User: Fold these one by one.
Assistant:
Number 1:
Amino acid sequence: MTKRGPGTAGAAALCVLLQCCGGSTTPGGGGATPTATATPADVAPIAVKRVVGAYWYPNWGDPANTAPRLAWSEAVLTPALGQYDANDSKVVDRHIKMAVEHGVTLLVVSLYERRLQGLLSSRFLPYIRFALSVNLEEFGGFRDPRNLPAVLDWMRGLAFTRPSNFRIEGKAVFVVGDVNLLTERISAAELGAALVAGRNHYRAQYGEDLFIVGQWNTGAMSKDARNVPIMTSEDVALASFLDAATPYSFPDAGGQWRQVAGGGNELVAPYDDMVALFPEASDRFASAIRGRGVRFIPTATPGMGNTLLYQHGLDSWLLVRTGATPAKFGGLLNAVRGYMDPGLDLLLVEAWNEFSEGSVVEPTVEFGTQYLDEIARFATQP
């Protein structure tokens, strides 16, 4: 995930994080050099002192439009690459190049299994790490949490054994998306038992352990009067079955919802108000799981605005953070830096290309590379 050698500060943590098969600190992992078709003349990753990951969505440009929220008709920002097909390996090449040359060394990829070939066949894949984010929400179907052993067998063949798959302390990483929403269908204890069963199966079958990250959907969490999430006893109980916990974002923190005619809800408030509460919200998460052997991974978001989704009836709620700028996002990165686990030195950005919610660090017509420039500064500073 770093090239030209990691800096001295944070190098030990990076060496642990970048283990993959042979434990090499080159982005290809496994002691392997990048593929012959990709050379330093094509892509030149910068040396980083901490790991910045970004959520990456492969459904943009899907001709089947299986995820209407991720259709270009809903985009509120304009990609510098134009309206691309994220399942085109040449597009993914350009994403990876832009990412690693600005300090983004991990992509957390939403698992749309029919839309991963572009990523997996990218000639620049050896330069970056990726982890899959999986929603286990098909109760009674394959992706039922209680079917986790079979899901993990499938994911091993798809991703876990690939040299560029992200590992922490030698363990394959995967993210359970919206993990707290699963407790609306089964109890935290039942979900925990399913996670344990999956972990035990994988260990027995393959002789190695997993690193399971639970991603919290904060929209479904208890909140205080300022819309700062509260970790309940159920949240803490669920986290105890995981290796790490991370919030996807805190998009409504510091704002107030109001109901409008027709039953919708709207929150339009300054980005500054949200940013001001990210440290407190992060502290609540980290403090709640401290002492339980669970790591905390902080998050940062460049903005929020689902105007078109709301207008087109795909969302029943409108959430807009006004006045977001790249410089303010850079301030947010530094504000949550203190909550990065010292053994992981990992932060996740929401998101690389969430164009329908205006959460984008990928270069755009509106901002150029300014958001990535802020990440580069953050990832390389001592």
Note: Residues 1-36 have pLDDT under 50 and may be disordered.
Number 2:
Amino acid sequence: MKNLRTAALLSTAALVFAAALAARPNGVEMRLGATGGPFPGETSCANAMCHGGEPNSGPGGVFLSVNGTPLEDYRYIPNETVEILVRVADPAQGRWGYQITARPEGDLCANAGQFSQVPGSLVRTEDEAIGECGPGLQFGMHAFAAAGPNEATFTINWTAPTTDVGPILFAAAGNAANGNNMRGGDNIYTTLAKVEAPEPEPLPMPAVTQGGVVLASLNPPVETVSANSLVTVFGQNFAAPGTLVVQPEVDGEGRVAAQLADTCVEMNGARAPVFAVVDTQLNFQAPSNLVGVEGPVEVVVVQRCGTSVEQRSAPVTVNAASVSPGFFVFPQFGGENGANPIATLLGGGPTVIAPTGLFEGAGPAPSGEFVSFFATGLGVTDPFLQAGEIPQNVLPAGTLARLTGSFSLTIGGMAVPPEDVFFVGAAPCCAGLYQITARVPASLPTGNHEVIATVSGVSTPEGPFVPVLGQ
């Protein structure tokens, strides 16, 4: 009976030992972060307390491929799953293992896609930090060491990220061991493969319409631009068909970025902040290097900006000047000859001034009250603002960027006294937008009254008006 109990205990111990082997390949816990890749805290098997030797000092190597193609020649397709072959070779060795990881080149502490295990390989996720990288990094590796002369090949599945994350770095370490269960005599090999996203299909060349560069106030058109003014360019193939991006990107310095939806625009040789992109139209801000420029300047639209397949339009010219004032209007009013209501707020807002019924809650401006008109192209301010800078993001609290040039205003043919012009300068909210806050003459009768602003001797076009409710 005692012998039977002993046999049962030995049998149970064997099962437990086998289970432990299944949970810990080769009987020991394999250290993660041992691919030898150029990542924070990454080591290789040669110095990860599992094998000895200097990496890549033997006659063999570790080789990565997909569908018979070296991995570095493969281009990933978002969300596609492929089988990666990991081949470890060394003519003098006979026991084999590997570890692999994938990281975006732009974020070495993040996973690029996901590995999934197949027979012979495991996928493990590190639940602790590795160097400067937090937990959660994923690694593929052998489930059990392979045995046999000269070489061994492992497979593991990898699913690409759901979107293009730029180049991806695959790092792998291969162990070519002699099988003596000692650290000495093993050869460790490392490799690094950079995998690019697929090149997009080429788009037709972008083309700017001749005469298609105007002040973004649009109606009536102003065909002269000035530093920091908001500009619209019309044409074709500025972006992929169907592109509609109307929210600019703002960088960490509080500036509107010079690229949006992979599209850039250059004026006078400088990249300009971009506010909106569709395939036939761009809205952008004229760069600050136009200060002091008088005469024609070139405009170029760059499609797929910054990529290996970017395409540049032929340049077109537009006239530049020190100022190019124009009011923003509500074009849906449908006025003829530019007779549209100016984008106006009562005081500083939020009540909109517009013809009754044009917007819910909107109505005419009471005569004698202050209103704020919105325009662009009024010229240099003090403090000076660089193109793309949003005043409330970059100026000290309470600081207003006021116009430096001479200014006058008429409403309904009546000159507004200087003391009734409260503010003229950069609207705090937005790059390139100017605000004119002034009192509507108390004697104006009810009706639509044309507004003319004159900056440094240059006037806004005739036509735009403000609706007024007389006293």
Note: Residues 1-29 have pLDDT under 50 and may be disordered.
